[in-house]
Design goal:
The chain is an all-alpha fold. The chain is built from 6 helices and no strands.
């Protein structure tokens, strides 16, 4: 098979990755948000059963996780992401996983992989 179909990262997958990176349980998130986000509801969001939680819930999670609220609003479908320029370049977000703590080695490896992918694209 040639080519790969890349599906965009969903809000649930994104939030689950951040929570995992922060080493928090569903119950810990519930407690840390003052029960604004119940563990059961967060589980439903992370599993894709709830795709567009309220902006209030997204704000509580953004504050707890220390991530960009606007990006969560984009993933939930409330806001449109910035337009892609005609050249195909998009400005703004330096790395897809900017919210996830990476070691220096992991960041360097991601940059090497990005360079590799771009070289493959240029060869086509």
């Amino acid at each position: 098979m040639s080519g790969s179909s890349k599906s965009p990262v969903t809000l649930g997958v994104h939030l689950a990755a951040i929570r995992s990176d922060r080493k928090l349980t569903l119950r810990q998130v519930e407690e840390a948000t003052g029960k604004e986000v119940s563990n059961a509801y967060l589980s439903q969001i992370e599993n894709g059963k709830v795709g567009a939680p309220s902006p209030h819930v997204l704000n509580a999670l953004a504050e707890l996780y220390k991530v960009d609220y606007t990006h969560l609003m984009e993933l939930a479908g409330y806001l449109r992401p910035p337009r892609v320029r005609e050249t195909g370049e998009r400005h703004g977000r330096a790395a897809t996983f900017a919210e996830i703590s990476l070691t220096d080695d992991e960041e360097a490896e991601l940059l090497r992989f990005l360079k590799f992918l771009r070289a493959q694209k240029d060869d086509k």
